[in-house]
Amino acid sequence: MHREGGAFFSATQLTRTPILVTDASDARDPILFANAAFLSFFGYTESDVVGHTVEDLCEESACQVIEELRRAIDDGHERPLEIALRRKDGKATLTTVVMFLVQDSEGYPAHHFLSFIDRAEVASANARVQELLIENARLVREVAQRELLVDETNHRVKNALMQAAMVLVMQGVHSHNREVSDALSHARERLETMAGIYDLLSTKNAKTIDLGSVLQDMVPHLVPPLMPIVVETHLAPGVLLPPELAQPLALIALELVTNAVKHAFPRRRAGRVRVDLSLHDDALELTVSDDGVGMPEGTTDSLGYKLVRGLVRQAGGTLEHARTGPGTTVRISAPLSP
User: Fold this and answer.
1) pLDDT of residue 155
2) Domains contained in the chain, CATH given
3) Helix (H) or strand (E) segment spanning residue 7
4) How big is the CA angle at 157 (ends 165 and 166), to the nearest 5 degrees?
């Protein structure tokens, strides 16, 4: 092996695992080869080991282990066993050894291959594994605490919004000014919509939100009972977004649908509102269109439209609107990450 070298010799010399190779065809089973890791670990030179037997290196009481290993090989059940080997300085070191049989081309025993595992290294590795497990458990706990905090925050925000909406209801009831009453009513509806979104987010408690699913849950409820308006949704499935992007986009859609229902169909006129959500490469497109009377002058300066523009900026997107024959179309494009 020394003369021929080759892959086996190179591999055994590079590994940190102590290795011995013996001559299994000889009844004495003498050592033919000890790798650098074995010599370094036990303090021997090559001449101290080659030609001797493994029993020569064992503590007297441990020599029976080698016989057990040979019997295990004969039974076809190789297994690791503990063995005490002497170092060059005479001190005994407890290691774990595994023995394998290498046969020649005719199936006769040729070599025994012995691999030793330093128990101190195993203990050190186990200790490191324990440290990693503890660190992993700590990280899992922190993630769980953060998710709980996010859930609690969403819940509290929802409650605060609902309380504010109730205050606006009371203010509206006592107001005798129609414009003030309408403004308070619109503000209340927006707060209730936002509260609904936070409620939905807190119950899902996820790192990503399916925007199509959120809109499907909320858009149909924006048409008051008995109004002859149909809301159609064409929503791409699996549009998973982080909450900081899903929230403003959901609010945009709900604001635009609410405005269309309120203003595009005066005097209980029948009509249709359509919400489209689609993906295009690394961006999404949200479109709200109606076949109503069209966007009146000054709409883009209204509070609702200013809210939409602010939310579009928050989402890092762009907004365009147009009159499309009968009705209005508003299109928002936004990147998939904020």
Assistant:
1) 57
2) 6-123 (3.30.450.20), 208-338 (3.30.565.10)
3) helix 6-14
4) 15
Looking from the CA of 74 toward its CB, the CA atoms found within 13 Å total 7
Structure tokens at 257: 């649908």
d(CA 251, CA 107): 77
Most distant CA atoms of the chain, gap in Å: 112
Task: Give Cα separations from 338 to 162, 198, 241, 314, 335 (angstroms).
Answer: 27, 19, 9, 8, 7
Prediction pTM value: 0.48
| 151 vs 17, more confident | 17
CB 209 within 8 A of CB 326: no
User: Sheet harboring 229-235: ordered strands across?
Assistant: 229-235, 271-280, 283-290, 328-335, 318-323
pLDDT tens digits, one per residue of 104-153: 778 888 888 888 877 666 666 666 666 665 666 566 556 555 555 555 55
